[in-house]
Amino acid sequence: MDARYKNRFRYHRLHQLFLKAENIPILEDILSTEGARLQRLRDQKHSDLLRFGKIPKEEELIDILRLVKKRVDAMLDLNQVRPCKIRYWNLLDLTNNPISIGKKHQELSSVAWYSSNMITIKPTALEHLVPIIAHEYTHHIQYEIFGDIHGESWKAFKEGHARALVRHFSNAIARDECSEEYCYKMQNRTVNTLLEAYRHLCSTNGHTASRALLSIPTEKQIIPLLGRTIDKAIGLGLFLIIEQDKGQEMYRDMLQGTFEFPKWM
Ligand SMILES: [Zn+2]
Question: What is the torsion angle, in degrees rounded to the nearest 10, for the CA atoms of residue 235, residue 35, residue 252 and residue 227?
Answer without folding.
Answer: 30
